[in-house]
Amino acid sequence: MNKILKRALLPSLMAASLAGVTLVPAKPAAADDQVLRDAGIGAVTNVVTGAVRGRHNVLRNAASGAVTGAAVNGANGLRKTHNRRHRNAVQDVGVGAGTSAVTGVITGDGKDTLGNAVDGAAVGGAIHLLTNH
Fold first, then answer.
1. What is the Cα–Cα distance from 68 to 71, expressed in whole angstroms?
2. Which of 102, 46, 48, 50 is nearest to 69 (CA)?
3. pTM
4. Tens digit of pLDDT for each residue in 80-105?
5. Do 45 and 123 meet the contact criterion of CB atoms below 8 Å apart?
């Protein structure tokens, strides 16, 4: 009887949980209208840092940089409207480093986590320098 309940109840419970999480967001996305700009800055910066470090997979570097740039934008979007104009360098570099390290693990490039974090920090720093008013 226990197996029957698990097989009948768990899939329905998981489907309901998934629908509740994905269809009813608690808060709108934090990225602002400049997310494509930051993703582009991230892609270009990561391609350059990848070339400097001898990692010549341009497509993987660009994709990782774009994800990192979007994450830096999203983290900045969590701040109040007044503070969005005055970006925090430590936050941008930290979010860039963390996101790039995690992205490297997800894309199968987890052997060089420190290098990925350095690339992400460069992306966060570049976005901060190019977009801080």
1. 5
2. 46
3. 0.71
4. 655 656 778 899 999 999 999 998 88
5. yes
